[in-house]
Amino acid sequence: MRLVLVFAAFVSVVASTEWTQQPFSCDPADQKTKSLGFCQTNLSISARAADLVSRFTLDEKIAQLVSSAPAIPRLSIPAYQWWSEALHGVAYSRGTPLNGTITTATSFPQVILAAASFNEHLWYRIGQVIGVEARAIYNAGESRGLTLWAPNINIFRDPRWGRGQETPGEDPTVTGKYAVAFVRGVQGDTFLGGKKNLNHLQASACCKHFTAYDMENWHGNYRYGFNAIVTKQDLADTYQPPFKKCIQEARASGLMCGYNSVNGIPSCADHNLLTIVARHQWGFQGYIASDCDAVKNVFRDHNYTKTEEETVADVLHADYGPFTMSGHGVIFSGSLQMSMRSCTFTWKLQRPRHKIWSSTEFPERKAHHQYMVGGTTAKRFRTMNLPTQVKSRTTQIMNKVFVVMWIHPRGMMQTMK
């Protein structure tokens, strides 16, 4: 019943909020963009993204490479913030500041506690609520993005790891199942998957941190420059399976590379990891983001490259999108070919941002408006209480042990001691 009450509180707040239409590109009433290729809904997402990229100037491409992407007024492209957090509920972040009329969202137990229920339906329902609330806040005009950087599906191998509470635990199978259920819920897919039109995402989920990341600061080894030595067998049996399931079964639209190196190569500059494995072998078609300053760390902490320009060339060659850094001279230099930049932008824009802001009328959008003003009387909200079988003796004990892991949704990530 607690789940119902907490979620109901959020709905009541949103229902009392004046609905402000979030700016979308390709508004049919906008004569300036009506005839442009990227606004033609009869074309594929990839074709529309390619057309849009072809219209960007060099400076516009540079600006769009970072997490705080500015508006492009001449193309009626609104500003967008890629960085939003939703580990166990929509949380305070750059994308969702929670500083308007909506100041909070439903906060669920930390992931390791929810995972202890071993209930895939529960994980899916948690993801559903997070996705619906993220979309509702965005449609109310009170968030700047719908790309949620969750779940954290790293393997919790050492109990001294401070961020282990963010993960489903030490088991690759459980972690993989959690990723599938959570991502499907967030993105608006069915529990069994495969039923959702991925051209209309409810919100975007991003599986992180790819790969073998599970250490912050230990005996002088800091996460920004740590080199994880991992055997091929451990990668195949332990660290990679959750990410493979996240891509192939959950069809996550986002993937985040981590701070660390794996066997001497920084994750965010590893062409084999990001392109050969994730894209070619597993079929990933979404965007890849760096963790905070992970691009800079390739040069500064890993000493993998000689210059900042070479660093960005390497990570773009590795194939991924938004950086949480900026700088004209750092991002572009003579060593970068326009074709490489265009390829990066095409991946970034076609999944999922283009799907979020390029459509003005579709059933899900209307449904979320009804959800915002309809209160909690709908049957789907009345049935969200935890099943009796989940409230086992184990869960009761875990509730007492991990009560400290409840974090207020406005609390910044990674701040607990």
Break the fold down into its secondary structure elements and pairings.
Blueprint: H1 2-15, H2 45-55, H3 58-64, E1 68-69, E2 80-81, H4 111-115, H5 120-139, E3 147-148, H6 172-187, E4 204-210, E5 217-218, E6 221-222, E7 227-228, H7 232-239, H8 241-248, E8 254-257, E9 261-262, E10 265-266, H9 271-281, E11 287-290, H10 294-300, H11 308-318, H12 328-331, H13 338-357, H14 363-373, H15 379-382, H16 393-401
Parallel strand pairs: 3-4, 4-8, 7-9, 8-11
Antiparallel strand pairs: 1-2, 5-6, 9-10
Helix pairs in contact: 1-5, 2-13, 5-6, 5-14, 6-8, 9-11, 10-11
What does this structure look like?
One of its GO terms (cellular component) is plant-type cell wall. This protein is an alpha/beta fold. The chain has one domain (2-405): Alpha-Beta Barrel (TIM Barrel). It has helices spanning 2-15, 45-55, 58-64, 111-115, 120-139, 172-187, 232-239, 241-248, 271-281, 294-300, 308-318, 328-331, 338-357, 363-373, 379-382, 393-401; strands at 68-69, 80-81, 147-148, 204-210, 217-218, 221-222, 227-228, 254-257, 261-262, 265-266, 287-290. The strands form 4 sheets. Strands 3-4-8-11 form a 4-stranded parallel sheet. Strands 7-9-10 form a 3-stranded mixed sheet, with no helix packed on it. A two-stranded antiparallel sheet has the order 1-2. Strand 5 and strand 6 (221-222) form a beta hairpin. It is globular. The relative contact order is 0.15. The model is unreliable at 12-17, 325-335, 337-343, 359-363 and 369-417 (pLDDT under 50).
